[in-house]
Amino acid sequence: MAAITEAELTRALERTLVARGKMPPGEAHPTARMVLGYFGADDSVLDNKLSSDDRDRFYQLEEEGLLTSEEEDATVSRGKTWRIHYWLLKKSRIREVGRSGEAPPTEDAGSVYRSIGESDWKRSGGSGSPQS
After folding, report:
1. 3-state helix, strand, coil in the chain (%, to 5)
2. pLDDT by residue (tens digit) across 43-64?
């Protein structure tokens, strides 16, 4: 599959993290540039190459389905096993979100409460005691 462009990832970030209020609009493009800077022409990047702040951002992108992480065990000298963690771009998801005309709907508790009519918030009965 062809490499993800900065514009594609920026649009995907705008339609996920920015649309949900998890990222200011001005951070979408710099974040896309940072992410693609780690990946370069590859489809994966070793986790230990990330700074702590960048790793936090990668986890945020994973929550949105734009990245995924995997691990594998490797046997090194003297039979010791090391676990290697790495990140993968979910290219099809990035393109799907980037092409869609609108951001995926968000579920927030506030919208549920706002949808309840004023009359539903009022208690019925005049005694003030719980009804049985």
Report:
1. 50, 15, 35
2. 899 999 999 999 999 999 999 9
Where helices occur in 4-123 by DSSP H, the ranges are: 6-13, 28-39, 52-63, 91-99, 109-114, 118-121
Contacts of 28 (CB under 8 A, 6+ apart): 10, 13, 14, 17, 18
pLDDT tens track of the chain, all 132 residues?
Answer: 788 999 999 999 999 999 999 999 999 999 999 999 999 888 899 999 999 999 999 999 999 999 999 999 999 888 899 999 999 999 999 999 988 755 445 455 555 555 566 666 676 655 555 554
Say what the pTM is.
0.70
The amino acid at residue 6 is E
Pick the CATH number of 6-100 from 1.10.10, 1.10.890, 3.30.450, 3.40.50: 1.10.10
Q: In whole angstroms, what is the distance from residue 124 CA to residue 132 CA?
A: 13
Strand partners, 46: 86
